[in-house]
């Protein structure tokens, strides 16, 4: 009996803690230049995983009349705040299907906290300053990361299994969606070639002597 319990205990330990894997996603354009601000996500095929919503809200700041960060990735249910650190008012809004909202003109900490409760991409703008744009990528998987200036994003603590890998970027010309298998102790790199549309954002020119946007 004691031996049986020992075997069962060992079996439980082995099942409850499979060795996690790591996938490093590297995004490059056709010229080989690293692509930053891409969101890489891995979704376990066939079995939804529990999501851990951050206790504290995530902040997307407005500073120097720009949003920061430009791209933010969160799980469904995450609360986001939009502190305005400028001395001019901003009017943050979204008309995206995944989250429609607006926070009328304010300076400092906005009274409202926005809950991103549906998966999808939400485009943020400011009603006063047309050039201000940012994105919130709302995901229903706990495995995601944003590429850094070297085009690299590490997805760690991956339970072994079959995953769908998706890569999103504001200017991506074609969807990146592929399947891959993560085995125990895996440490692999996926190099993703992405083609970006031209950046058509209107750049702010505060000293150009044009209209007074304040
Ligand atoms: Cu503004």
Structural commentary:
It is a single chain. This protein has 1 helix and 17 strands. The chain is mainly beta and 214 residues long. It folds into 2 domains: 70 residues, Immunoglobulin-like (Sandwich), CATH 2.60.40.10; 91 residues, Cupredoxins -  blue copper proteins (Immunoglobulin-like). The protein has a 5-stranded mixed beta sheet, with no helix packed on it. Strands 13-2-15-16 form a 4-stranded antiparallel beta sheet, with no helix packed on it. A hairpin with a 2-residue loop joins β4 and β5. The chain is globular. It starts with a helix and ends in a 21-residue tail after the last strand. The C terminus is likely disordered. It binds copper (II) ion (CU). The site of copper (II) ion has 5 residues, from loops.
Sketch the topology as an H/E string, one letter per element: HEEEEEEEEEEEEEEEEE
Category from helices, strands and their pairing: mainly beta
Report strand order across the widest sheet.
Answer: 6-12-11-8-9
In this structure, how is the largest beta sheet organized? Answer: 5 strands, mixed
Q: What's the CATH topology name of the largest domain? A: Immunoglobulin-like
How many beta-strand runs?
Answer: 17
Q: Helix tally?
A: 1
